[in-house]
Amino acid sequence: MESIEAILEKDVLEREDLIRVLEADGADCGPLFRRAAEVKAARVGNRVYLRGLIEYSNLCSKNCLYCGIRSGNAAAARYEMTPEETIEVARHALERRYGSIVIQAGERDDALFVSKIERTLRGIRALAGDGLHVTLSLGEQTPDTYRRWFEAGAHRYLLRIEASNPDLFRKLHPDDARHRHALRLAALGALRAAGYQVGTGVMIGLPFQTAADLADDLLFFRDLDVDMIGMGPYLEHPDTPLYARARALLPPRERLELTLRMVALLRVMMGDINIAATTAMQAIDPEGRERAIRAGANVVMPNLTPARYRHDYLLYENKPCLDEAPEEIVELFEARIREFGGTIAYGEWGDSRRFLERTS
Ligand code: 5AD
Ligand code: SF4
Fold it and tell me: Are the beta carbons of 47 and 345 closer than 8 angstroms?
């Protein structure tokens, strides 16, 4: 069998190579993480960009089988922030020199929602000017809505494909016209056409998911030539249909190890994109995000959602940092990444190099 070192020497990693690395013994993966660290240092550097995360609302019109805020979960207490509250949080991010924010919410496409987001974006631009770049993570919308929000000041958009394999996607979503793999793909195309830096991603360790699926996810990211990636371990939520499959899952620690391996492989494959160290990693290991930074990630999203709402934005169990103040979390994170040469890039937008290169 080919060694991991030999595989990493190749100019282009193929499906079989990726499967081999994903299935390798943990003890054999040292060369992967070393290689990812080298590529990261050479292509994007060791600075970590901050995105202040604002969980704007947990109202959602969709019913994904894995998600705690799915519309079918009557146990979830629903909230929606106001544009004014959201702009106030953006002010905090600006004052703390975060450089950018992410506005995330459950998916809705009603006219009131669309116009409130537009108003929020205009308010943030009036407040911050060039001081903040704004990422949206608000699901599938019409090309017209994507254009409106872009014109109102959004720069980037995250829309995870969740699973690039359409058969796996179908097992994770209700079989109806609102939950279609093809629609999600079309939305990613519309985002690029509207001018956004486009991010996508998947969950790792899902029921039914194989190493070949994960290898195909990585190839999907490369083929789509994405600018940013956010992926995290799947974490079961008891009030969801997929919870029935919980016993068949990998143990959480192994889901995290697999996620770190995906991050490292992606950094080797796509040296100049932005890769997020996601909150779900930290739900498994208090130092999960720091480990992701070491594995090749270069973006972190401290949660700035007001505490009174944060407890209700529960996509999965054991969400971390429900009560800590974001400043303390960032300080601790900063101290930990310093130990291995990382620093935080305060006051910078941290746009995707891949995007800047493609559009220059
Ligand atoms: N475990 C992990 N991630 C989840 N997401 C939703 N539900 C879960 C879960 N149970 C992720 C999805 C979505 C993002 C906002 O959160 O990938 O795109
Ligand atoms: Fe809604 Fe997103 Fe959860 Fe699906 S994953 S139910 S679209 S919030």
Answer: yes
Which tokens sit at 57? 């609302």
Distance CA 217, CA 163 (A): 7
Closest CA to 352 of 268, 231, 264, 227: 227
Domain count, the chain: 1
Residue 25 lies inside a defined structural domain of this protein? no
Q: How many angstroms is it from 75 CA to the middle of ligand 2? A: 15
Integer Cα distance of 7 and 11 in angstroms: 9
Q: Does residue 113 lie in a domain region? A: yes
Helix locations, 205-246, DSSP H: 211-224
Q: What is the CATH number of the domain that holds 143?
A: 3.20.20.70
Kindly calculate the radius of gyration of the chain based on its CA atoms and give it in whole angstroms: 19
User: In ligand 2, which atom is closest to the CA atom of 68?
Assistant: 3
Domain housing 84: 42-359
Dist. CA 360–CA 70, nearest whole Å: 40
Ligand 1 centroid–CA 94 distance in Å is 27
Whether 4 is in a domain gets the answer no
Question: Does 123 have pLDDT greater than 90?
Answer: yes
C-alpha–C-alpha distance, residues 132 and 304, integer Å? 14
Cβ partners under 8 Å of residue 75, min gap 6: 239
* Ligand 2 center to 351 CA (angstroms): 26
- The verdict on the CB of residue 106 being under 6 Å from ligand 2 is yes
List pLDDT tens digits, range 40-94: 999 999 999 999 999 999 999 999 999 999 999 999 999 999 999 999 999 999 9
How far, rounded to the nearest angstrom, does the alpha carbon of residue 121 sit from its chain's CA centroid?
A: 21
| Shortest-distance atom of ligand 1 to CA 137 | 15
